[in-house]
Amino acid sequence: MATVPERFPDSLGLVAASLDEPANIRRAAADAAVIDIPSDPPLVAVTGVGLGMLAARATAALVAPGAPCPVLVLGAAEASGRLPADSLILDMGGGDVAGAVHVPGGPEGMGERLGLAARVVAGVRLAAAAGTTGETSAEQVADSLDARMAAHARSGTAERLVRSIGRTLPLIHAGGPVGAAIADYWKFQANLHGKVTAWTAATPALAHDEVCSWGQHGDVTWQVFTALMLRGGYESVVDAEQLALYSGLLDEFVASVHEVRAGGTGAPGDGTDPAGGPLADLCELAVLGEQVGLGLALAEGYDPAPAPGLQWRV
Questions:
Q1: What per-residue confidence (pLDDT) applies to 142?
Q2: Strands (E), the chain
Q3: What is the mean pLDDT of the chain?
Q4: Per-residue pLDDT band at 266 (split at 50, 70, 90)
Q5: How many of the other CB atoms lie within 10 Å of CB of 61?
Q6: pLDDT reported for residue 272
């Protein structure tokens, strides 16, 4: 585990808690293993609020492609109607759907701030216990995350991204439903901990109209925005091609473009363990997003813990 310089005004120890995510994954998976889950549900619904909703979206995106039944994300804004009897409802955090199974995860006392990776691993494990997705070794994912984050610590990935962003505003782009949830988690971290506004977009939507927004004002946007392209093995071939094209387009209009490629797809390239597949890629990018969001505050000498404005109501 990387050491945290004492000069950082990190009153809650958020940096260290984030870097301890492999242990949180093991703990959450063990807690999920003892939860009694009915097999072969007619429908799987995942729900949550805030970080819990991001975890719900990521879990559904990972589970749905191979599931033998529908997998839905339930949020306050969606109309779901009556769910079939014996549906499996997974509450990824903060939800209030009756009969939901509460999914463990996240560092103790910080579940509204950190721990997307552990929560998703536990959610996928519960879905596997119900027979709706294949088994994934949480131990393998945790071991892979250990190796990947050690490689990032050696290469200074998070610190480099924080320096590159500086006082510009991050544009965070990714591929497909899994990438969309991860990009929004990076935004969550930049907002909550970095106190920095940020924007996200993901394929296929960014290829529909987002791409049109760079038709003018390049003399302004190159001074304001830094683009971060989050890449992982969860992408389809089409998503990967679109992101590569979009990166080239953005290069003319933003301060810089940085590709953040998960270890399972060939980076950082210094011995990172590629085991674990798309789930491990998600976990790696989630922890990196936490480190970047926290680093944006710490680089300015701010404590990332205070969250002004959360009590506001519009």
A1: 95
A2: 44-47, 71-74, 88-91, 101-102, 169-175, 199-203, 225-231, 256-261
A3: 89
A4: very low
A5: 23
A6: 44
Dist. CA 58–CA 51, nearest whole Å: 11
Could you give the residue ranges of the DSSP H alpha helices within 34-89? 51-63
| Residue with the larger pLDDT of the pair 120 and 206 | 120
Residue 65, both tokens:
């492609």
Residues 18, 8: contact at Cβ < 8 Å? no
Model pLDDT for residues 103-153, shown as the tens digit of each residue? 998 888 888 999 999 999 999 999 999 998 888 899 999 999 999 999 999
pLDDT at 9 over 70: yes
What separation in angstroms does the CA of 254 have from each of 61, 196, 261, 311? 30, 17, 20, 34
Question: For the segment 50-78, what is each residue's pLDDT rounded down to a tens digit?
Answer: 999 999 999 999 999 999 999 999 875 55
The string over 149-158, giving b where at least 16 C-beta atoms fall within 10 Å of a residue's C-beta and e elsewhere, is bbbbbeeebb
d(CA 112, CA 301): 23
Crossing angle of helices 277-299 and 157-165, rounded to 10°: 50
263, 132 in Cβ contact below 8 A? Answer: no
Token digits of residue 243:
């992101």
Torsion angles phi and psi, residue 145, rounded to 5: -65, -40
pLDDT at 267: 41
User: What is the pairing mode between strands 88-91 and 101-102?
Assistant: parallel
Q: How far is CA 117 from the centre of its chain?
A: 7
Per the listing, tokens 């290069």 go with 251
- Taking alpha carbons only, the member of 37, 48, 108, 106 closest to residue 77 is 48
Strands 44-47 and 71-74: parallel
The Cα–Cα gap between 223 and 45 comes to: 43
Alpha-carbon distance of 44 to 97, in angstroms, equals 13
Alpha-carbon span 38 to 40, nearest angstrom: 7
Helix (H) / strand (E) element for 244: namely helix 237-250
pLDDT of 109: 85
